[in-house]
Amino acid sequence: MTIAVTGATGQLGRLVIARLKETVPASGIVALVRSPAKAADLGVEAREADYGNPDALARALSGVDTLLLISSNEIGQRAAQHRNVVNAAKAAGVGRIVYTSLLHADRSPLSLAEEHRVTEEDITASGIPFTILRNGWYTENHTGSVGAALAGGAFIGSAGDGRISSATRADYADAAVAVLTGSGHEGKTYELAGDEAVTLADLAAEISRQSGKDIPYRNLPEADYAAILAGFGLPEAFAKGIASWDADASKGALFDDGRQLSALIGRPTTPLSAAVAAALPR
Ligand SMILES: NC(=O)c1ccc[n+]([C@@H]2O[C@H](COP(=O)([O-])OP(=O)(O)OC[C@H]3O[C@@H](n4cnc5c(N)ncnc54)[C@H](OP(=O)(O)O)[C@@H]3O)[C@@H](O)[C@H]2O)c1
User: Model's pTM, two decimal places?
Assistant: First the structure.
């Protein structure tokens, strides 16, 4: 039984590999990576597998029974990249694909959703048994700004009082491992989100409580927030994207109360307080 994981040198992929190693023998795990040199510390076999290289993908997927396709981070190229992986998996006789999609991908207004919809359709059409993990927002997307909020004296965003059911990468990694190593998941699509639904004002209040400093939440018009992010040096398209996803969140696009994630992992999702504690500068 060989389980392969794409994006294995990414942040989510590294957590998945580490947790898989606690569950199955390392000899049954293959890391699919674009830079094998970056995978030297993973402790499992690493195979070169650039999403843009169908020949390399074909070689890398040989003998793989179960594949975790962690969605690419190259926004705009992902549908084509994922299609290469699905085609190579089909040709290699992969027995099951598990794909990390986006929460409510079928109806999500987020600009990110379209590429996930295309990949979900490709996977379904391939005839390969599949499981779709529709991952909600990473708590780290917002707690990554804790340092900036402390430096600037406010937490800024455009999510208004939208409630965000985020969970940590570690929570989503545990869900992936549960599905990769468990049974009864074929043909299922899981909407994965945190048990808690918090506003950015709740996040700012938690940062204030733990830091002992007054860090209010300052809600900005979407265009103003995008301009500030671009001013921090983010590429303009990405800055606009982040602001737009916050604006979508203000209308509930990142909310879910189905608790399918905690059911899958058999424990509550990581509380906001723990995620903030992990993000506070030491
Ligand atoms: N739900 C959310 O809130 C959220 C937030 C951010 C991202 N995401 C999605 O979840 C995915 C995993 O998250 P993450 O935090 O682990 O992202 P990440 O750290 O940016 O990792 C992305 C991985 O994709 C790999 N990759 C990119 N282009 C590739 C290519 N052409 N061929 C092969 N591999 C390629 C990267 O390889 P290298 O290691 O060589 O760079 C990296 O391992 C992201 O890629 C994105 O689709 C979701």
Answer: 0.98
